[in-house]
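Q: What structure does this chain adopt?
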Amino acid sequence: MKFTSTLQFNCVPDWAEHYISYSNLKKLIYQIEKGLISVPIVPEDIEAVEVSPLLDSKSRTNSIFIPALDKELAKISIFYISKEKELFDEVTSLVHDYAVFENLNDSLSVHSNSLVTGLSYQSSESAFSQGRSSHPIRRSRSASDAATSHVSSDDDENYNYSTVNLLEGRLPYMWGPPSIEERRIHLKKRTVELFVWLSELKSYSSLNKTGFSKILKKYDKVTSSNLKDSYLSNVVNDAYPFKASTIKKLEDHILKVQEIYSYLCTNADMDIAIRELKTHLREFIVWERNTIWRDIISLERKSHAVGVKAPVAVEQLVETPANIQTPFGMVIVPKTFWRSFLLLLVCIAAFLFFLNANFFKKEEQNNCFALLILASLLWSLEVIPLFVTSLLVPLMVVCLRVLRSDDSPHKRLDAHETTKLIFSTMFSPVIMLLLGGFAIAGALSKYHIAKMMATIVLSKAGTKPSFVLLSNMFVATFASMWISNVAAPVLCLSLIQPILRSLPPDSSFGRCLILGIALASNIGGMASPISSPQNIVAIQNMDPSPTWAQWFFIAIPLCIIVDVLIWLLLLWNYQPHSDSLTIHPIRSTRDPWTGTQIFVIVVTIITILLWCTEKQLESFFGDMGVIAVIPLVLFFGTGILTKEDFNNFLWTVIILAMGGIALGSAVHDSGLLHVIAKTFQSMTSDLDVWQVFVVFAFLVLVVATFISHTVGALIILPIVAEIGDKLGGSHRNLLVMVCEYIIF
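A:
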């Protein structure tokens, strides 16, 4: 989670304006970044504050940014000192009231006396000392109740006072003087409330210190400065809220509150007292986040929507739901439901028609053809989610009994035999290869390895627009080989944000750069077997399956050539060199390589080398799917990837691939694929091999334009592979590879 969100969801809502203005400081950094290559920035909204010792530096950027930091530090210090005095006064009052309570109970302990006589509030070494201000808690009564929810129900039934009265030590005498037990309940509630707010003050100090560290790190990265260490050590750490003595004083007062609670509620057992107080704190924070912040975020979203009105054409496209009266009440049905429902009826009607049309002599082939039509329509029209259609495939394969035995004469398999065969087919080594690819991609992304490697390369690209464009395209292509062609453009777009921010508003280079990254990422999707699901489908339909070395030998030169052609086309169309731009260079990361990152890189390289030499090691590993288990075991076994990372795998894509494999197996084992291939062969018998390639290339291009690439591969590649077999030689793999690349 970004620190902006962390700050937003962990700060005390009532204190929100007193935290570090992290977002405003980020905006100032971006203004400074633009000023480095355009015109100087003079921050008019920065007020004059006490000058930091670091202002002796002649750096123009530091002279802009340091006063903004000093202003935030002064704001935080003033608020902390004021709030600390209020809370420490409350601790003094609580200790006094506890001693009075013990006297009334005729059991005042020596420890209680030491608390009263030993506590003397020290001034917060500030000129801001003042009389006692309003109480720190300005909560509704429900907030107080949430913080003290562990007080027994019997206690609450006996007596209940407002939070302010309890903390100010004023007990209303509506029914006479309170009893000893009632006073104990009130003191318990006050103790819990005070512990909560002292803990919040400690969190306030910690969160703001983290904020200064984060914003200084960002400033150093953007401006190539070294301000962080010196400012933190010389200024931030010397500020009152962040001194070690200040934190120690706060912890001492928290300890006093814990001691009072232990004597009141746990028979002086400090361990139980601390555990109960932390439970109160946790429940209070949960209540606070689930109510106050929910309302604030809702208001913020509404404020962003104020004055934003959709164009008339867009408003006309917004469909209002339809209300249908039923015996059980009014049902609201979106109008998109009827479109999906009608398309579903069309798919079912087509399925029933082909199921009873008897286009083929064998019943299992006819049933399989009807299933192929149904799955193709559902995948193409996306009436239901793609992975749901894949789950439907094995169900229909079993119910329609489309499989037959391999031995001649072919015997139609029963439901039990079909079930075992189809499910054993779905979880193939290719699926394990896909899982291994997800594990490698997850580790490279989680530990920012791909980003660090990309910044190192892009930092060498210089400032010439054409070279910057080509460098970003090659980085996007390489990244999409390992972290998918969906995640790669997201990564690259985050890297080029400094470039986009520094471009003039009318520059065409931004559009050129973004389009180049998108196209290059798409090209990179065919560069390695694990970069896209359709590559997995292609490998499944190739016989013999290509090794990684063979795939790289064909794919990488082709990707480079296509990237260069796209680069030339973009330069010709957008002509970024005519803008006379000076591109803001991307800075290489300064973070050192960690042991975990090195381990991930080593495991990834070893796995890729094993995949490349899989044919030579086939007697030991058996298949590249077994090699894919290595990164899964090493990354998850060592805790580098967690259960949450495993749950974040693209399981819908995996199920989609499994359904496609099941459908391909059904089409093959039913004999339908042989019949279709034989029909196509008779239709193309007069054509040369290259003419057959052109025909199928055009067919694949048309189909893949209107449906998902993965779905297109699932439907077309099994048929293409069978027709390639009929052509003889090695044409099967060649035809599959050609159609696979055209799908992209």
